Amino acid sequence: MPHTKALLLSLAILASLSTLLTCTQTQVPAAAPLPAAPAKLTVDTPWDWSGIIGTGQSLAVGQMGKPVASNVQPYNNLQLSTARLPWPVDPADKTLSMVPLIEPIGRLSTGYPSSWPTNIAGETPHSAMANQLTSMVKAAADRDFISVHGEVGENGQCMIYLKKDPTQKGVSGRSFEAAVTETKAITRLAKAAGKTYGVGAIIITHGECDAGNAKYESDLHQLWQDYNTDLPAITGQKQKLQMIVSQQNAVNNRSASTLAEWKVGVDFPADIVCSGPKYQYPYANDGVHLITEGYRELGEKYAQVYFERVILHHDWQPLQPTKVTARGAVITVQFHVPVAPLVWETAFDAPHQGVEEWKLGKGFEVSAANGQKVAIASVAIDGEAVAITCAADPGPKARVSYAMIGETKKMAAPHAGTLRWGLLKDSDPFIGANTKKAQPNYAVAFEMTLP
Fold first, then answer.
1. What domains appear along the chain, each with residue ranges and CATH number?
2. What is the pLDDT of residues 285-313, one digit of tens each?
3. Phi/psi at 322 (5° precision)
4. Closest Cα partner for 253 from 401, 415, 362, 422?
5. Rounded mean pLDDT of the chain?
């Protein structure tokens, strides 16, 4: 009997321990699963070295962009060194070599006018663009991305000097041939280094000289066609070149080149894209040229567009109008919005404060068919559209424009800018890797006619 009691006591103790263990296990929550690693994007980087060639006029070569800031290459991006070679440069010359990309890219100009290989005035968008691209590819796919940049712009020169078979005047008119020379030299040097090379894009920072050129859009498209024919014939690439154009926002009211730099991307969307305006960047005192930080921000925006269009093959488009309608005194402009929602910039001065009719327009301008200004009572964001309420019905064939009519004075510090600007932007969270500045997309300057 004592043994039986002892046995029963032991069983009771074991049962209690079992219950205690069971309760303890049910009270401890299961460990949370480890967060999944962020998915890697599918990036298209077909060459070891990806070429990017810039052309244009003074803003392309960094006028007023001193002192330079991008004087160290943090990655492996490259440029062609022409040493002390004079024009014309033989692409087979053994003096040519690949060196790290820093600013000033290439050789400084020795006078005005100037042309490649001694055409650079200061910080250009190239180093910031290259370094931004490398950082984006590394973050997206954990791999290196090496871009090889060259700048063949000519300070102050119109498209007639930049195109293929250009007008020749002194040193002006070498730009296209310089791009061909660079491409031949880099193709040779890449092969010698055991690297593949192709040209991914042409960036155009231009338009002030051609502000009154009604044929500027066709000129841009012809330039794309000529580059897309001649450069792949050198590199052997099958991939066509992307052209990235930014708007000039400094010269002429209703500038033909400003409109063309937007419209060419609408009319030839697979080949050419407008990166947006430049009015949001910091300008020099002349209201025409950027300062060093402005060129770097522009380079970051060029990189974002290149990354989306060339590397990810996304159909990226700027913040641009797609349709305009009117009902009585209310005009509605529908927009393509890269990253919703639309918002108003609050850090800039309000535009058109010297124009009574448009001082409430936040950059929008309305004119009747006869050209008379129409008073704007209010503007309001409505989803992906902006409703412009006029003081009266503007009538048929009225013109709606945005950031196309110049001010009598430019935007004040600390956001000192040019004479034409607006306040509409999207909510893109993109922040530049070089400048650490936010880079939302600002609405392009445009003009449209009501039905």
1. 49-311 (3.40.50.1110), 320-449 (no CATH)
2. 999 999 999 999 999 999 999 999 999 99
3. -120, -20
4. 401
5. 92
Residue type, 152: V
Instruction: Name the helix (H) or strand (E) containing 148.
Output: strand 146-151
**In 3D, which of 429, 405, 451 has the Cα closest to residue 343?**
429
Instruction: Give yes or no for a cis peptide into 113 (omega within 30° of 0).
Output: yes
For 185-194, the pLDDT digits (tens) are 999 999 999 9
Query: Which is nearest to 205 in space by CA: 174, 175, 241?
Result: 175
Token pair for 335:
């927009």
Give residue-wise pLDDT tens across range 147-157. Answer: 999 999 999 99
3-state secondary structure of 161: helix
What element of type H or E holds 295? helix 292-306
* Rounded distance between C-alpha atoms, residue 396 and residue 164, angstroms: 42
- Torsion angle, alpha carbons of 431, 435, 439, 443, to 10: -170
For the packed helices 175-192 and 216-235, what is the interaxial angle rounded to 10 degrees? Answer: 20
Residue 28 pLDDT > 60, yes or no? Answer: no
Distance between CA atoms of residues 10 and 343, nearest Å: 75
In the numeric block, the tokens 């200004």 are attached to: 373
CB 130 within 8 A of CB 124: no
* Both structure tokens of 67: 């002192």
User: The pTM is what?
Assistant: 0.91
The reported pLDDT for the residue numbered 412 is 85
CA 384 to centroid of chain Cα atoms: 21
Burial 273-284 (b: 16+ CB within 10 A, else e): bbbbbbbbbbbb
